[in-house]
Amino acid sequence: AMLRLRLLTWDVKDTLLRLRQPVGQGYAAEARAFGLHVQPEALGRSFREVYGAQSRRFPNYGHGQGLSSRQWWLDVVKESFRLSGVQDEAALTKLAEKLYRDYCSSHTWELLPGAETLSRCRQLGFRMGVVSNFDSRLEAILSQCSLRHHFEFVLTSEAAGFAKPDGRIFEQALRLGGVRPDQAAHIGDDYTRDYRAARAVGMHSFLLRAAGQGQGPEVPPEHVLPTLSHLLARIEK
User: Fold this and answer.
1) Three-state SS string across the chain, please?
2) Which of 17, 123, 158, 224 is least enclosed, having the fewest CB within 10 Å?
């Protein structure tokens, strides 16, 4: 069946961009400049624990709980280092500010293979938007990585007030794109937050799942993208 798509919405992290190095390594390298020596693996474990706890306590960057996303992140960074044994609070404050800024930089991110698909999609006349569980830095990150110009809108969970898999963030995206759900498809790497959540509001969706990532729920093969380059064959029917 011909998909009469007009709008494509895109997840960003681990769909279009990924971190050049694991968080623990990045944080540890930055800490060395402040004279702090922390094991990257330990720091990575601390970060995952702190990030999980903060996300449960203050979902979606503390939206509606009086917390700014900036403060949310500064607290996560500092607590990750504290949990890894660092006690120099003055250094931690400076380090957290530096890391918060650095994560806007193209030095921190790299394009995933097949990201040139974005240009092809625009040439084919698709309208494009971003739907991402991210904070307000995403605009700057996309600009730094030379991707911002592909998109009519960038909708973050912070701006929307709802995080995927909440259908309301997709409904906002459809309003921004001015299309019906059946005229739109979402592309992302997370089964629950991207693939299933978009389908729940009546959109089409495609799951980026690299070869060898066999785990996870069954998805019809025609909805799976081994790389982003496979998208065109799926939508140009």
Assistant:
1) CCCCCCEEEECCECCCEEECCCHHHHHHHHHHCCCCCCCHHHHHHHHHHHHHHHHHHCHHHHCCCCCCHHHHHHHHHHHHHHHCCCCCHHHHHHHHHHHHHHCCCCCCEEECCCCCHHHHHHHCCCEEEEEECCCCCHHHHHHHCCCHHHCCEEEEHHHHCCCCCCHHHHHHHHHHHCCCHHHEEEEECCHHHHHHHHHHCCCEEEEECCCCCCCCCCCCHHHEECCHHHHHHHHCC
2) 123
108 within 8 A of 102, measured Cβ to Cβ: yes
Domain edge (last residue) among 107, 134, 153:
107
- Residues 185, 142 share a domain: yes
pLDDT in tens, 24-66: 999 999 999 999 999 999 999 999 999 999 999 999 999 999 9
Q: In this structure, are residues 52 and 44 in contact, taking their beta carbons and an 8 Å threshold?
A: no
Q: What is the mean pLDDT of residues 3-9?
A: 92
Q: Please tell me the number of Cα atoms within 13 Å of 223 on its side-chain side.
A: 20
Q: Same domain, yes or no, for 11 and 36?
A: no
* Number of domains within the chain: 2
Domain that holds residue 175: 7-16+112-233
Q: Give CA–CA dist 26/63, Å, rounded.
A: 27
